[in-house]
Amino acid sequence: MYLPKTWTEDRERCRAAKVPDDRGFATKGELARCMVLRSLASPLPIAWVTADSAYGQESRFRRLLEQSGLGYVLAVPKSQFTVGCPRIDGLFAQAPAEAWEKISCGHGAKGSRTYHWAAIRLPAVAEFDYQGEVPHRMRWALARRSIGKPDEIAYYLAYAPLETTVQELVRVAGTRWATEECFQAAKNECGLDQYEVRRYPGWYRHITLAMLAHAFLAATAYQVREKGAAPVRQPGAIEFTVAEVRRLLAACRPRPPHLRGHRGRHHALSWSNWRRRRQAVARRCHYLRRCHTIGGRSP
What we know:
DDE superfamily endonuclease, RNaseH-like_sf
């Protein structure tokens, strides 16, 4: 939880809100470093870190990842200093047309997220990129240009093992959208941002329960997709989503006596199947339009 200085410098206010005494002011970069260290101390397998420019522009955050042996693809502002050029946008300003390659960084609700990408290998830093005399890591600068709006360009710094391809770096950069979609789904379906609390324990409980509920819905949707049992899997329908699982679970809860038999579970499942078939048609139309935009290919 990010607490501004106006809060952390007023200890009486913090105590009134039950904020722990050990919670001092920390920038978003410092909070990110704490999250990375907690993740490294856990048994979870971690290979990559990706983040937006608010974190990517912090050199201390990048150094922590390099010292920890983690690869990263971090968005940075166009004014970001990089080796060989005072601004990262200057590295790509004179890039020839053949330097830009059309690559998809994943699928979204409206089709493939395809952009023009350019990559430049950066000089190595001996302190972090070598094991003895042998290089084992490499640095990249990436640029992502919109196909429909060429003036819209985003920039990234990457740190990766030697065998990593540009396509893999693009894939890692695209995983950040999944995180944003996860938070959006938690807000829409589990009320992650719908809290009205005055004290820290209440906020903490609400956030924890909302994230737990979303994790349960996501795991249930995944299990349903893996089993693929009839009548769950419908021809021409999209797979179950977190929102659809929540609706079906709501239809399974006990009803008051005067509503029993009125639009029960079978009605909810039939409506779900119809809705998912219509969503499949809408998604295919979006994909066709997107493919036409990026080069006229069919999905």
